[in-house]
Design brief:
By secondary structure, the chain is an alpha/beta fold. 40% of the residues lie in helices and 17% in strands. It folds into two domains: 198 residues, NAD(P)-binding Rossmann-like Domain (Rossmann fold, 3-Layer(aba) Sandwich), CATH 3.40.50; 102 residues, Alpha-Beta Complex (UDP-galactose 4-epimerase, domain 1). The chain contains ten helices and 14 strands. It has a seven-stranded parallel sheet, sandwiched between helices.
Amino acid sequence: MKILIAGGAGYIGSHTVQELLLEDYDVTVFDNFSTGKREFLPGGSVFEGDLLDKNSVKKAFDKTDFDAVLHFASLIEVGESYTDPNKYYTHNLISSLNLLDVMLKKGVDKFIFSSSAAVYGYPETSPISEDHPLRPINPYGQTKYFVEKILEDYDRAHGLKFISLRYFNASGADPEGQRGEVHNPETHLIPNLLLFLLDKRDSFYLYGTDFPTPDGSAVRDYIHVKDLARAHVLALKRLFLKPKSEFINLGTNTGYSVLEIINKVEQITGRTVRYTTSPRRLGDPPVLLASKDKAERLLDWKLEYSDIETIIRTAWNWHSKY
């Protein structure tokens, strides 16, 4: 099968490309390489283009008859989405609409969407299940929510079948050391901790020590990027086997506080983290945990790399070399 992966040179996209190639899919990566890294790509074809340019998207589809599309290409920084919402609404919505429009014109009706736990907002229950109310509290989460609503409408109107995968905290690195997490700016907890220990950051801030959690720091659900990538392959297989649209969480049911992550990092690296406390960031819920029951039931998904030690150790090994 011929698969187009928009944003396939990014952190999660490149790991998914690797998993698809291992199962002999014919993969084409569509990327503008504004943040994606060519050196992370393990193979497949590459089409350099921009989703905001519909003609560029058309050229990719004119070149190959695709059977399905996976969409990873979006802006992801929550803080920046508050300060520049226009950038996020323009990029994340228009890019998705352009991609979907060309897909429909070419008769491609299977779509895997990279969504986010940010669609839920402040959790009413924990772990969060897929039927939890959707009340995103930041522009980034709103863009993911809006694309999900667009997908529902396109299914109803055009028969587009999709699986929207709602990630919690993607983390870790390729166990073989070929690819890892690189963002500019880097805002995620684990890579920031490791970069600080490698003298690539001048300081490390712990945002919030007064959350209603056992140690006062925020609790999050961390999932290894390789387990995430595997879930995309399983979702694609299900979509071909049973073409029914679904929303599925990808998490672990387990949470770690920021202070617990700091302690684990110190244990694994043998180094001390000297941090500065700072007030809570805007829109940070105290606890975010995902129910993985639906993913296990529908996708036969099994976590292999998402224990916190493997997450931190693979990330440390990669950042130490990269």
